[in-house]
Amino acid sequence: MEYAGVTDRGKVRENNEDFFYMDGRLFIVADGMGGHVAGEVASREAVECFVEAERENRWLDPASRLKRCMLAANLRLINMAREEPSLRGMGTTLTALLLEDAAYICHVGDSRAYLWRAGKIRPITRDHSLVGRMVEEGRLSPAEARAHPRRNVILMALGTADEVAPDIHTINPLMGDRFVLCTDGLSGVLEEWDIQRILESHYKAEEACLALLEEALSQGAPDNVTVLVVNMGRETGRFKADKKRRWSLFHRGKNEA
Question: What is the rounded distance in angstroms from the CA atom of residue 228 to the CA atom of residue 209?
Answer without folding.
Answer: 7
